[in-house]
Amino acid sequence: MAITGIMRRAIPSLAYLALALAMFAAWMHPAILDPRNVAWLLDGSDRGQNSMGLIAYLRSGTWPGLHDPLLMAPDGFPVALTDSNPLLGLLLKPFGLPVGWQVTGPWLLACVLLQVAFARALVTRYVADPLAAFLGTALLAISPALIARYGHVNLCAHWLILWALWVFVDPERSRRAGWWAAVLGVALLVHPYLAVMAAAIWASAVLRWLAVEPETWRRTAVGALAVAVLLAGIAWWLGFVGLDALPTGSYGQFGMALDALWNPGNPDYSALLPGLTTTAAQGFEGLNYFGAGLLLLVVVAIGAAVMRRERIADLPLVWLLPAFLALTAIAVGPHLVWRGQIVASLPLPDQVRDALDPVRAAGRLFWPVGYVIALAAIAVAGRLPRASLVLGVALAVQLFDLAPMVAAVRATSASVDNAVYRRTRNPAWPALVERASSIEFEPATPYLEQAVRDELTWRAITAKRAVPLRYFYASREPAAIRAQLDADTAAFRAGRIDPTRLYVVLDKKIPLALMNRIQLIDGVAVIAPVSPSLRK
Fold first, then answer.
1. Of 165, 184, 198, residue with least CA distance to 232
2. How far apart are the C-alpha atoms of 277 and 281, rounded to whole Å?
3. What is the 3-state secondary structure (H, E, C) of 112-137?
4. Is cis: bond before 74, omega within 30 of 0?
5. In this predicted structure, what is the pLDDT of residue 535?
6. Closest Cα partner for 478 from 299, 302, 290, 239?
7. Which residues contact 69 (CB under 8 A, 6 or more apart)?
8. Residue 459: CA atoms inside 13 Å, Cβ hemisphere, count?
9. What does R_g of the chain's alpha carbons equal in angstroms?
10. Are 258 and 344 a contacting pair, CB within 8 Å?
11. Residues 6+ apart with CB under 8 A from 281
């Protein structure tokens, strides 16, 4: 009898585990779970930068510090600016993983498992029927904004948004600063954008308790101050405090369209609705598509809420409104986009534009708003007489509609020939890299010959003796580092080079003084280093 009871309790958990595994297998090729499989990462994408930044830190970083001397040599820079995952770096560095093993695939699986776990925790709070709760969890977990975020693997941690909401909706948890310290601290160690989203939910909880229980304002204020101090400490640890990052001037270019909830942005992402966008980048960064099934459910839930006078007393949405209105306004940005066209632009003072420059991909900030709308719709539908039927139909429509998106994303994770090096195949490369005191890419820019730069970077950080790189893509570029890179370029253009470096000329603009030193390998212009044994 005891075994039967255990099995009965375990079956629901096994069903949710199966949901998570099925979601992952549909989204990503299972081969990415092999830590030795790196071919799918070296495609010039941001997830390749993420993986290389992490591996460079695991090879040479200062633990428990978060500085990496191998990239942007000789001084190095914070691992967080490599677009990699500081949290994984801290957790994995003490274990000494084999050189070159990737953990991006396992990280994505962990994100899906946690996404389903927190979606379940939220939905079962409002939906009592087990089948309806399972269907509602699937609808909440299978988010188009998550599926399409495959290129930015840190930002696939949507479970952090759900974790913050799970803390928020429970009165006892939301009162405790410890819960907020945990979710916000982890979020900041994963990605600043996720920390901003979680912080908006935390600020809403603080506002609620200050308004509802004014007599406890001292406890609320002390708890909020403690969380703020912790976040400041983590920001300092990450290297963000005092960071003189160069402005990008790009706020507003990657905002959310006014019709984003029913506009998939990419014409190949929906089986039922057209995707329209100003540019591919705007459509990607501003993607907040709900999916046809969830849109249908929202309409049904609104109708049911009006007709049945539904109330979700346990989901204090009103306290989220101020923060969510601010997030939505920033996400939409100064350019109002409708059906793939900019229909109006709002003037912004320079001070406001400069202040918002760190959130240049502002369209992402709507994600927590979208999750709350979805959760509210699921909660209302879950209380209908035929909740399982309604949620089942919505899920079926959702899966059919998102099938093209899922297929397109999955294809990016399956390497055709599993060859790590496609652009730099020549057997001369390993010796060139290992002889170098460092590698200098000219010019130092992220958008030129990305495959060449990625493959040589991979060779450098996984060589028997790790080779420092003078340049690496930075999500935010400190002014001092840019000055160093510009000095390198000026010296190169003047014909002054360090004979121990490997120079890789990506634009094929060779200074006359160095023409006799150039050789072509795989069509790439390089200046080989002098072997240290031959140097005087």
1. 184
2. 9
3. HHHHHHHHHHHHHHHCCCHHHHHHHH
4. yes
5. 37
6. 239
7. 60, 61, 62, 75, 76, 468
8. 26
9. 25
10. no
11. 253, 254
Distance CA 430, CA 460 (A): 9
Say what the alpha-carbon torsion angle 119, 121, 126, 131 is, to the nearest 10 degrees: 70
Q: Whole-model pTM?
A: 0.95
Give dist(CA 509, CA 70) in Å, integer.
27
Dig out the tokens for 301 from the structure. Answer: 């839930």
Distance of alpha carbon 123 from alpha carbon 116, whole angstroms:
10
Cα gap 253→326, rounded to integer Å: 18
Question: What angle is formed at CA 500 by the lines to CA 494 and CA 503, rounded to 5 degrees?
Answer: 55
Length of the chain: 536
Q: What angle do CA 265, 371, 407 make, to 5 degrees?
A: 45
Contact 183, 198 (CB under 8 A): yes
Phi, psi angles (nearest 5°) of residue 78: -60, 140
pLDDT at 293: 98
DSSP 246: P
Residue 423 CA to its chain's centroid (Å): 27
Residue 131 and residue 28: Cα distance in Å, rounded? Answer: 26
CA atoms within 13 A on the CB side of 253: 10
Kindly give, in sequence order, each residue whose CB lies less than 8 Å from that of residue 383, ignoring residues fewer than 6 positions away: 126, 127, 310
Backbone angles phi, psi at 521, to 5 degrees: -130, 120
Residue 129 CB burial class (10 angstroms; 0-12, 13-18, ≥19)? middle
Find, among 47, 32, 48, the residue nearest to 454 by Cα. 48
Tokens of 86: 């500081």
Weakly modelled stretches of the chain, pLDDT under 70: 1-8, 309-315, 415-417, 531-536
Non-local (6+) Cβ contacts of 406 within 8 A are: 26, 27, 147
Under a CB-based contact definition with an 8 Å cutoff, are residues 83 and 46 in contact?
A: yes
- AA identity, residue 129: D
Tally Cβ neighbours within 10 Å of residue 449: 20
